[in-house]
Amino acid sequence: MPTPTDPSPAGATTVSEATTPVIEFRDVEKCFGSNVVLKDLNFTVERGERVTLIGPSGSGKTTILRLVMTLEELTDGYIFIDGEPLTHEQRAGRRVPVSKKRQKQLRTRIGMVFQQFNLFPNMTVLENIIEAPIHVLGRPKAEAIAKAHDLLEQVGLSDKADAHPTSLSGGQQQRVAIARALAMDPEILLLDEVTSALDPEVVGEVLNILRRVAETTNVTMLIVTHEMGFARDVSHKVMMFDGGHVVESGPPEKIFTDPDHERTQAFLGAVLGDN
């Protein structure tokens, strides 16, 4: 897992004061046909910062994560990882694609946990976890296996290394997916509604694992969730999205207790209750 840091009294790690953001969206636009999902989007995520995106379904939150993971292509604008252009750059006054090799190198710094687990059903749990470290990062197999067993112990599945995903519950599969993402030692971890496909009784165990990751590492997190308690607990910053725009942004204690924008107030009122 990424380098441990000392949690603050509130259980949050300290955000680095590095001047270059880990993630920067600059004038980003994303369209699906004639549907403009994101327009003139600008925001940054600092090193070690945990930023949660909230808002109604269809507001563009998951699209943001998929753009960072290069699972969707930008229509216009730029995304930077540690100051380096992820998919497009300015060259001789023109917006041009970066090389696939460069893009692939940047992607190795990013891990993502999806709603639907996305595990390989023909592989065992252990094989799922070691596949990318060996074939993408070039790590020795013995090293990858040792790390995988350590991660499985951390997520409470040390006895499931030889099982196949289809034999596991949804909560167990999502814990494997978290271990798989962490096996790459990501600088950035993207979490896309990781509990939305789970039965209510197992949501808590998955969120508790992610809380421990947040409290014991300095990994930068960009989170999409409807679990407002989790967002409040782990976030340094919360961004309210609606219609592809940032409506309001601030620390969780401000956003959840005294939001300025009426759209944020209405959304949280509907999700949390007006009291």
Structural account:
The structure is a single chain. By secondary structure, this protein is of the alpha/beta class. It has 2 domains: 47-74 and 97-109 and 187-275, 3-Layer(aba) Sandwich (Rossmann fold), CATH 3.40.50; 120-185, no CATH class. The protein has 9 helices and 12 strands. It has a 6-stranded mixed β-sheet, with helices on both faces. Strands 2-1-4-5 form a 4-stranded antiparallel β-sheet, covered by helices on one side. Helix 3 crosses helix 4, helix 3 runs parallel beside helix 5 and helix 5 (170-182) packs parallel to helix 6. The chain is globular and about 50 Å long. The chain starts with 22 loop residues before the first strand and ends with a helix. It comes from Nesterenkonia aethiopica. It is found in: Cell membrane. Keywords: Amino-acid transport, ATP-binding, Cell membrane, Membrane, Nucleotide-binding, Transport. This is Ectoine/hydroxyectoine ABC transporter ATP-binding protein EhuA. Belongs to the ABC transporter superfamily.
